[in-house]
Amino acid sequence: MAKWKKKRQTMRHYDQSAMVYDAQYYEEQEAKIKVALERLTLKEESLILDLGCGTGLLLPHVAGRAKLVVGIDISRNILKEAENRVKLHANATLVRADADYVPFQNDIFDAAFAITLLQNTPKPHLTLNEMKRVTKPDATIVATGLKKAFSQKTFTRLLMEAGLEIRVMTTNQHLNEYVAVCTKISKKTLKEPKRLSISPEE
Predict the structure, then answer these.
(1) Distance, CA of 78 to CA of 25 (rounded, Å)
(2) How far, in whole angstroms, is CA 143 from its chain's centroid?
(3) Quick one: CA torsion of 68, 141, 147, 22, rounded to 10 degrees?
(4) Structurally, how many domains does the chain consist of?
């Protein structure tokens, strides 16, 4: 029951702060999105999942390179704010759902983003497993981790134990979160990533 209590608290928080979310966090979120997108190449005609999409700040950055962008959030009010951005993109849609129970079949998306999400979920490894379930075998998964909630070592271990190969992890004094660009890997081949690149604190 504890996990549902945390989810209800998160939902209430974002329902209450939805109208002022952009005013408070726009620059911060844009910085994380910019760092992530600089470090990956989206396939043409991609199907993209934005898990915990908030007010849809990622959408303008990826809609032009995607066949479809789906934003999912548990907060009804935050999705109402996101509708303002979705209206500008015919290839975007919003779904109200729990990030741990995404209403899609396996192996659908080419890329999935979880920006400012994992620290708000009761069991982040389950959220990552759900992201893996709905993404294709060669999918890119972008995840951020709040520094106040995770040490860099803990966040790295979380991603690796979820079966993700960290291609690059960025952290600096201007970001309040670690930004990791990952690739799905089979549990059979799960091992220390060969190409882990970490941008040190400045």
Answers:
(1) 13
(2) 5
(3) 0
(4) 1
Residue 184 lies in domain: 2-199
pLDDT at 102 over 50: yes
pLDDT at 201: 43
Q: Quick one: which of 38, 73, 39 has its CA closest to 57?
A: 73
Grade residue 67 by pLDDT with cuts at 50, 70 and 90.
very high
Are the beta carbons of 59 and 86 closer than 8 angstroms?
yes
- CB-based contacts of 129, cutoff 8 Å, min separation 6: 162
List the structure tokens of 22.
């952009």
| Cα separation, 103 vs 93, whole angstroms | 13
pLDDT tens readout for residues 90-99: 999 999 999 9
Q: Which of 119, 115, 116, 98 is nearest to 48 (CA)?
A: 115
Residue 118: the pLDDT is 97
Full-model pTM: 0.89
